[in-house]
User: Fold these one by one.
Assistant:
Number 1:
Amino acid sequence: MISDAHCHFFSTAFFSTLSRQRAKGDTVQQLCSELQWEDPGSPEALADRWVAELDANGVRRAAVIASVPGDEQSVATASTRHADRLVGFFMLDPAANDAVDRTRHAIEDLGLRGLCLFPAMHHVPLTDSRVQQVVEIAAARPGTAVFVHCGVLSVGVRRKLGLPSKFDLRLGDPLGVARLALAYPGLPFVIPHFGAGMFREALMAADTCPNIHLDTSSSNNWIRYTPGLTLESVFRTAISVVGARRLLFGTDSSFFPRGWQRGLYDSQKTALTAGGVPAADQDLIFGGNFDRIFAA
Ligand SMILES: [Zn+2]
């Protein structure tokens, strides 16, 4: 059975935040119609939409990420409503005044399982004490992981809406994750998209820290930064350095009606099979590892 470690929960609150940032006074409905995306409706309705989509694709469980800071409640509603299917992750800005309280509430009261940091987006280095404060809260709660976006970062919906994305890519360095992971050896860390262009650094970090995992999500377009690299060779190298037990399949699916991105599953499955990866290892990558880290 498949578990997807990386999906975005584009809730009504998510679109409201983007609308506020754009400051043109659009309603969520207007924004969605401009994007030609479905209006997500209530968190309950969006959660049900996701579960129906997972059912249609034979996906057992998925991590759903609240994709703006402050949207913890939407994914909490979803993950409570479908506790056996959806695992709630939340984006946190460690520079927010209430970052510590928010993290504590999300993890301890709402039961969210993934603290997601985007250092390049929020301009907070991983060495900042404010990061350490929130990571410590995650470390105190078994079954929780810290997700750190590294490498190249582009947020398609921001581009589509003409919102600026002043990201400082220097801050998304997997070696910074290694420093944190060494300090909290019992806490699983996830670096998405194989490091999104910082593949070598992500491998170095994971080779040094047995608690660092890589997710395989997205179209992995970063592959074009290295001449000759293919998805098959990325998998082969990642498995030889970190092993199949620390790779988490993901798609980075986000909006409807596009829904779950089966094509990304198919291309990863093809790459693994072409690379001769044994079925038992593929089972770990496509779901076993996720279920071990985020036991239901
Ligand atoms: Zn993503």
Note: Strands lie at 2-9, 59-66, 86-92, 114-117, 145-148, 189-191, 212-215, 247-248.
Number 2:
Amino acid sequence: MRILGINALFHDPAAALVIDGRTVAAAEEERFSRRKHGKRPLPFSAWELPEQAAAWCLKRAGLRPQDLDAVAYSFDPALARPADAMGLDDPWDHLRLTYAREAPNFLRTALPGLDPETVRFVPHHMAHAASGAYAAPDADSCSVLVLDGRGERASHLAARRVGGRLEPLRAQDLPHSLGLVYEELTEHLGFLRSSDEFKVMALASHGTPRMLPELRRHVYPTGDGGFHAAGVPWAELCAPRGPDEPWTQDHADVAASAQAVLEETLLDLVRWLHGRTHDTVLTLAGGVALNCVANSRIAREGPFSRVWVQPAAGDAGTALGGALLVSAGAGDAPEPMTGADLGRDWSDAELGAWLKTAAVPCEKPEDIAVTVARTLADNGIVAWFQGRSEYGPRALGHRSLLAHPGHAGNLERLNDVKGREQFRPVAPMVLADRAAEIFDGPLPSPYMLFVHDVAPAWRDRVPAVVHVDGTARIQTVDPERQPLLARMLREFERLTGLPVVVNTSLNTAGRPMVDDPRDALECFGSSPVDLLAIGPYAVRRGALFRTGDGGEEVAR
Ligand SMILES: [Fe+2]
């Protein structure tokens, strides 16, 4: 079966293509449209479809829209209720339902030739659940917890996968929503709602949870697999922060308190689920599952032996989950995900042609991994553009910005390059076989969705990646899966004694991650990066900004 998955309704529009149970392509619309998150998460933008991502998925597989057996749309308007009946203050929510009902016809327009009868509405949280349970490796039988802002009428789903079946066990109805509570706080703290929740998580580590008792009056588990989470009087806890104002200790303390109440509620939900299923594996999905601090606590203190989080855990992942659910429902065996590199790539010849067209001077060294390791060892910053782009919000060694972890000043330097807040950490990538020596936490951790304690003996050796609380959000690199990246890390270790490199996403503030070669050149040209490693080619900053006829440097 050839199934196209579409996420469109709330935020992070994305498309994914699953053929006979195998994921062949998945991409977020923002990487094509160059608008962060694809669109603002507002009711009147609900009609916007991931047109470019969907068209690319089909092109990648050589399919036409009429060749599809089904399109999975990750929202079922038949399950929804009016916003006021669900206790939500969202007067334009009815637009979402109107647009969702019309999605089959909109999709026919976006993908000429598509039969609108092939479009299936998939319950939003079943799509999230499938994106975890069917994509997880070695998880034919597993529990799954969806932790979201909202779906049709609920905000959470506890479910169980047994083979090709996904059985819902418990859902928490709106207005109670851990995701919406966290979003409210994001807005109260002057950040962008439905976008910057990870900044609240980062700020939390600068505070103490002194407002936890007050928060527990509004956010608490109900003991039956559900929870109460609504009506938090944020303004009584701390003054709101304007977007350009400095944060205060009160802001950090309320963030720490919200993080703590989230974690203890999640632990209760996880224990309830384990009590029902007694599974060993838990998979997580939904926007809240991008909270790597909470994930780590679930892994450390929860009853499951293994916790796996799908890298596109937010709404983008429902494109993949919807397609996997329809595929499994049709009898195909879902194949587990082997990596997040499901997006676009270019051949060496195509990359060479891009550089030639842009008249960019470049080298083709014997091994780009060695060239990069040397530049990093000399404390240069490297833009790393290799292979297929990532599905999900994290750079995982395909569209990354790399630096030396041994210089504490590189945190500030990278935050300056990217134009982002100084309280935010940067993260390390580490060779998988060296991770346990340096980082204490769930291993392997290929998708940067857990935090690890940095061993005291290593904190002074890799200061740029150690957060204020002594942790790091690591990516482990498996040499079999990512040989080029592993070779670069080994060479860097040979030169410096450190099997760790700083890895952050290749973008500048407010822009989506770099996806195509033009994005890479534009990002490189506009930020103080020393080397662009694009496929086998090395573009050096010095060479780029010299004139051709005398070698005079014109910009540095
Ligand atoms: Fe969602």
Note: The first helix runs from residue 30 to 33.
